[in-house]
């Protein structure tokens, strides 16, 4: 057993280790471009702009890299020819490109994805290191090194919310009706979370506790949860689309649309773990025998001790967040394949297909691919960061009056951080499940 002097020496080195880890990872990630490697090799699609080999001005096949609607006729006049009602089969083509670092550099939001990916990786690494370092409540924030993971954790959460707000405000990335529905769901999420934190929702519904929070702090948490409900709608709908196509629920038997067996296994595992984890905070699934004081045994055929069950819930949150990141490539590929499905449907819809809509959809999916990557990546990162913050069990910040005079210290309680991590996953699961149910009933369709 180390004596008090050696323990103090170890604790004083925690800050140095945390700072060294953060600095070295930041420098290393600047040279090793993991975000580019994560997206490289995905297939994107480009609709032909013009397929007229006999036309000298066209120079053969040209792909539509520019925005739909622009035409060479806007630049120089052409002689009007008689309208042709026969569809030229040569124009029924689509090009498949493999994304590389050069292609990704031209996509909007790629630099934002690379920067937020690096910062979140540094934050999670510091939180993980803090878990294994020796700690003491008497050593303070600086000597114990807790200042570094807390700082990077809150900076990561701030960057996530700024990017989600920017992505959600992108006008061409989603329909106006979807934005209105997001606002409505955000307001409903605020009302529900306000009822949860104030105890209006019966305690037998959710296994959450907010006894340490006061009036203003509860209102702040409710607003925060309402914003989460607003931001998560479009990403969850896109995840549902990716799952529907990736698992070939359309039964179209098109190899270019569906994915391989391993990616399909990831998609199924990701969804099932999300549903399981979100249900672990619902009281009918985790009910305890309230008639006996100091209950340590959970009721319901699971036979776990309460401490074991709490640890199991944390592990499920961790696995769910990691599975969402592991299935990122599959979800992004399905998003790109959705444009191919639209092109295929429009091509075979009639004898004289009108490919203007599919051409616009292919362009937008190609143009906003990194925006969708952010929508898939940020919610999973939020779950992992808040889960890591909930494991800072030394309550160091609540012992400093200077910090508590600036921030409401009860908001830094581990139960609040754990509730936020669960709420993100819970809302994400509800949106995805409802969308998949509407697909199953034929009310919505992927097109």
UniProtKB/TrEMBL annotation:
Q: Which UniProt keywords apply?
A: Glycoprotein, Membrane, Transmembrane, Transmembrane helix
InterPro entries found in the cross-reference section: Transmembrane_161A/B
Q: Name one GO cellular component term.
A: membrane
Where would you say this protein principally sits, based on its record?
A: membrane
Protein family: Belongs to the TMEM161 family.
Does Hydrolase show up as a keyword for this record?
no
* Compartments (UniProt record): Membrane
Q: Does the keyword Glycoprotein apply?
A: yes
Transmembrane feature ranges: 6-32, 115-133, 145-168, 180-199, 219-240, 261-282, 312-328, 368-389, 420-439
Write the protein's name: Transmembrane protein
PANTHER family found in the cross-reference section:
EMEI, RE42071P
Instruction: Name the membrane topology term.
Output: Multi-pass membrane protein
Q: Which organism is it from?
A: Solanum bulbocastanum
Q: Region entry Disordered: which residue ranges?
A: 62-81
């Amino acid at each position: 057993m180390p004596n008090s002097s050696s323990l103090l020496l170890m604790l004083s080195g925690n800050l140095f280790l945390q700072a060294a880890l953060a600095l070295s990872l930041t420098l290393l990630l600047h040279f090793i471009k993991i975000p580019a490697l994560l997206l490289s090799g995905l297939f994107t699609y480009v609709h032909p702009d013009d397929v007229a080999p006999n036309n000298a001005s066209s120079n053969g096949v040209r792909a539509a890299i520019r925005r739909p609607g622009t035409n060479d006729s806007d630049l120089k006049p052409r002689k009007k020819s008689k309208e042709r009602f026969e569809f030229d089969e040569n124009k029924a083509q689509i090009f498949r490109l493999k994304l590389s670092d050069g292609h990704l550099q031209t996509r909007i939001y790629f630099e934002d994805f690379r920067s937020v990916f690096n910062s979140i990786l540094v934050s999670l690494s510091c939180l993980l290191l803090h878990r294994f370092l020796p700690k003491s409540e008497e050593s303070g924030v600086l000597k114990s090194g807790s200042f570094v993971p807390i700082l990077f954790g809150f900076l990561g959460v701030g960057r996530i919310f700024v990017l989600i707000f920017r992505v959600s405000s992108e006008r061409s990335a989603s329909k106006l009706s979807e934005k209105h529905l997001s606002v409505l769901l955000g307001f409903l999420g605020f009302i529900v979370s306000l009822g949860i934190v104030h105890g209006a929702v019966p305690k037998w519904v959710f296994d959450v506790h907010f006894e340490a929070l006061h009036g203003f702090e509860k209102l702040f948490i409710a607003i925060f949860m309402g914003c989460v409900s607003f931001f998560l709608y479009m990403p969850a709908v896109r995840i549902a689309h990716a799952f529907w196509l990736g698992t070939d629920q359309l039964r179209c038997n098109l190899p270019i649309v569906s994915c391989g067996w391993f990616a399909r296994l990831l998609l199924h595992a990701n969804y099932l773990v999300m549903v399981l984890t979100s249900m672990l905070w619902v009281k009918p699934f985790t009910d305890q025998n309230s008639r006996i004081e100091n209950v340590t045994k959970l009721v319901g055929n699971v036979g776990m001790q309460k401490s074991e069950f709490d640890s199991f819930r944390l592990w499920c949150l961790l696995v769910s967040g990691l599975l969402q990141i592991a299935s990122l490539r599959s979800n992004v590929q399905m998003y790109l394949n959705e444009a191919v499905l639209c092109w295929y449907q429009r091509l075979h819809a009639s004898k004289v297909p009108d490919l203007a809509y599919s051409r616009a959809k292919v362009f937008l999916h190609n143009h906003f691919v990194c925006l969708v990557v952010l929508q898939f990546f940020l919610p999973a990162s939020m779950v992992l960061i808040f889960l890591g913050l909930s494991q800072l069990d030394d309550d160091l910040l609540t012992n400093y009056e200077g910090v508590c005079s600036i921030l409401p210290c009860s908001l830094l309680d581990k139960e609040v951080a754990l509730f936020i991590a669960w709420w993100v996953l819970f809302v994400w699961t509800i949106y995805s499940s409802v969308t998949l149910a509407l697909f199953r009933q034929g009310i919505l369709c992927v097109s």
